[in-house]
């Protein structure tokens, strides 16, 4: 009997202690779990995770940008523009997306005319696709991309200023060509510019897209673009158009804000009339604008909603080119 | 001997279990403590804590602003401007800071000419001080303040647009009058506008202040202003000037960014020539600008450093007043 009684207190005490401490431990684990859920999501600018970090030794990669220029059938314009753009301040590297299938790139000639201020990489494509320029090129080391059409000349002043604006708005597409969509009573959207009716938010006009053919945006969005629904790629391939509208949808969805910030260019020119190739660019096709309205509606279907938002902010450079471009009657 | 052995296992087991679970509990508490430290600091726009929350029933107080107009010896202009400003969209209330010491306010006449779109409060002052307008008035219910000089007429379009811009940049002074400081080799600062040399950051000009005599800013900064070094109040009282420079110092220190965002006004007018009072405003004093340079240097002393930062962002309204004010040669 004594034997029983000896063991009992130990076991009982042990069991009670065990129960008590188990409860305490479980409570603490639940608290810890709750706290972990409250931790901020460690993400820098609410931007997509960059798989590629800039190399630590190239400090410049953080304060510079990569120019991506896709080219088709206008090599004379390409080379003229490369001479101009290769010297833009804060340019880190140029990536030429070579859509001239089967044709040799001008790399040899380029090298023979060196040295050049920055490296230029010719990316030979296997199929002539509009969305080739939206690949997540391994050569990208900078946080920013400057994307330019191969017939668009923007002054260095404009580009330097717009880059500084992008650095203040890194989650937006900061560029020189604003466009908008409007809604109609039937629910069908239409795409256009100033010629369309204002969306009706107060006076003045609004824009809901900034075209990527002359704009800065975060490199992370190229990575993000690789993860879109297949139907988006099919749409762009079907129309050979609308990759820029798709990018605006992507950015607007990601930020919940207007996708673009419009910087009013002082000097922007279209050089297509200067080409010897006789090729005049996709936007001359009769169906070009109708296609873009079509794309807006298709993308709304694909993304199950209209993510584009309106903005009426127009940014210019203070005191440039006129040193007092802000003076008034006061 | 058996007796001893009976008790022993219980005690030993109990002690070991106790030790083990104590260690586990301590570890969990440390983990919980670490997680708590990582929790985000719950603060809205990095703005000073607003003691005054807008009354829950006035939803409009969140999307509207309070006009604060200080007035001295220009009651005719005041009343003309009140007729204009009382109808601005999103205006919640007007606070008139009555610096005409010993003189009756026009409140009776104002009431006899009612009803009015918004309440107007006349705050009688005991001393004619420039910084009277920077009090933390208990009548303030909105997050935003619009501060206007009593001789400045800004169009409703400009104000409506600038308010929408402020809502996107709530920690900045968003207004229509940009100014800058420049540094000289001697280390002495000078105050001015476009007539001064550019600070030399790239091409174009820069501004480092936006004057509060025609600007929106967060109500919390008025509260913040009450907590400045005594020397700041002494400086403003001594010069009857520079309260706006002091506010820009305050905001720049608080944000670590340029204090202001400049919105280019379409229609801003100075009405002082229209007054019957013959009073022409402080800025006509011979020493006015020299005083302001003096203030910049004094404030750098008081704050032990120069917190003002430069910006060259100039914001205009897209498509207003010209529906295609963004068109270019493209």
TrEMBL record, chains A, B:
Cofactor(s), by name: Mn(2+)
Positions of the Glycosyl transferase domain: 65-320
Protein family per UniProt: Belongs to the glycosyltransferase 47 family.
Main location: endoplasmic reticulum
Organism: Cephalopterus ornatus
Membrane topology: Single-pass type II membrane protein
One cellular component term from this protein's GO annotations in UniProt: endoplasmic reticulum membrane
Signal peptide residues on this chain, from the entry's feature table: none
Keyword Membrane listed: yes
Keywords per UniProt: Disulfide bond, Glycoprotein, Glycosyltransferase, Manganese, Membrane, Metal-binding, Signal-anchor, Transferase, Transmembrane, Transmembrane helix
Transmembrane segments: 20-42
Domain of life: Eukaryota
Keyword Glycosyltransferase listed: yes
Compartments where found: Endoplasmic reticulum membrane
One GO BP: N-acetylglucosamine metabolic process
Known role: Glycosyltransferase required for the biosynthesis of heparan-sulfate and responsible for the alternating addition of beta-1-4-linked glucuronic acid (GlcA) and alpha-1-4-linked N-acetylglucosamine (GlcNAc) units to nascent heparan sulfate chains.
One Pfam family, short name: Glyco_transf_64
EC id: 2.4.1.223
Protein name from the UniProt record: Exostosin-like 2
UniProt catalytic activity: 3-O-(beta-D-GlcA-(1->3)-beta-D-Gal-(1->3)-beta-D-Gal-(1->4)-beta-D-Xyl)-L-seryl-[protein] + UDP-N-acetyl-alpha-D-glucosamine = 3-O-(alpha-D-GlcNAc-(1->4)-beta-D-GlcA-(1->3)-beta-D-Gal-(1->3)-beta-D-Gal-(1->4)-beta-D-Xyl)-L-seryl-[protein] + UDP + H(+)
Example GO molecular function: metal ion binding
